[in-house]
Amino acid sequence: MKNSLKINCFTTISIILTLLFVSCKTNSQTSFKSLENKKNLLISDNLKWSERMALSIMKRHPESYMIDDRTVAKWDYVHAVVLNSIEELYKKTKDKKYYNYVKSYADILIDENGDISKTYTVETYNIDLITPGSILFDLYETTQDKRYLVAMQTLRKQIEEQPRTPSGGFWHKKIYPNQMWLDGLFMGEPFYAQYTATFENGKKLDDIAKQFELIQLHATDKKTGLLYHAWDESKQMPWANKQTGTSPNFWSRSIGWYAMALVDALDYFPKDHPKQKELVGYLNNVANALVKFQDKSGLWYQVTDKGGKAGNYLESSGSSMFTYALAKGANKGYLPKKFKTIAIKAFDGLTTQLIQVEPNGEINITQACAVAGLGGNPYRDGSYGYYINERKKDNDPKATGPFILAALELDR
């Protein structure tokens, strides 16, 4: 009996050690494969800018979860901003390495049952966390893997339960009650629009239009036509104007989020939908306002309307977003054709002023604001000084993703 027990124990230990060895070997091979793929990514200046940027990202971040210099996989909007653009690049090139790069992010964060809760918590009601769902529509259509559908359904449930302002606008996060930020329109509405168009026969399109209506009504400056970064319906936040509830300045990236949200959500509004023309009108309003503040370089400043003020700088993420939104808007017929020319000028400004080319062919996009927000701890007051003093970061995903999209729209 004792000998039998010893043999069983020995056998069990052997199996465990073997499994550990195989696991380590597999992980080692996966990492080695990633390194080899990285070495084999040749970036020629004969390629279009969209591929040059995508390949540069993939060389810097061999695994897609590493985007934004992450070491741990996380369900996050910054990855989605880049991966959405690479998904669009795949549609143009049919190059499988782009598809695989996008898919690998979904597969590492969604388990075999479609659960994303390892790094996603619905209770925070953070609208930023809706955005990664946008990469799942094509993956589900291509594979019919129900994991992707379950993950999308989880995000749709969050939208259904998202706290709202008294007027019906989505809170930006649970920790920011009664506040709508321009950022949030991009984070929530394109996914919401695509979901309701794909799975619900478009029954919630009016609710999506309502979000834009509230922002247009309450966050637009009548003098310039620009939109303030945020609106607090309660008017309780220290940064909020006590009469209007708006934050005090125009931040280019926030307006960029809004413009991109419009052109992307409009993809799912039929032309005969009662709200379609209204949204197209909002896009024209913001496009006409932006032209007034475009620098001679073709770019826009961090604080949109204060180009000549000390400390302000030409900022790459907002400029890339505007370029994409104007180009797509013109291509789709939402905007007059002149905006395509304006987008081309902006793209030329990006490539000549803010793109750096490395000896190995990698490209870097410079002068991106790393992050900006309102409230919180430490407190962010939305002042001019606050925006110009937030740190800058080269190759920030909020710049690289929109740059790829702009390059695709302009076929550059």
UniProtKB/TrEMBL annotation:
Keywords, A to Z, come to: Hydrolase
An example of a Pfam family matching this protein is: Glyco_hydro_88
Q: Which InterPro entries does the entry link to?
A: 6-hairpin_glycosidase_sf, 6hp_glycosidase-like_sf, Glyco_hydro_88, PolySaccharide_Degr_Enz
Gene3D superfamilies found in the cross-reference section: 1.50.10.10
* One annotated GO molecular function: hydrolase activity
Q: Could you tell me which SUPFAM superfamilies the record lists for this protein?
A: Six-hairpin glycosidases
GO process terms (BP) = carbohydrate metabolic process
Q: Does the keyword Hydrolase apply?
A: yes
The record's PANTHER family line, in alphabetical order, gives: UNSATURATED RHAMNOGALACTURONAN HYDROLASE (EUROFUNG) (PTHR33886)
Q: What is this protein called?
A: Glycoside hydrolase family 88 protein
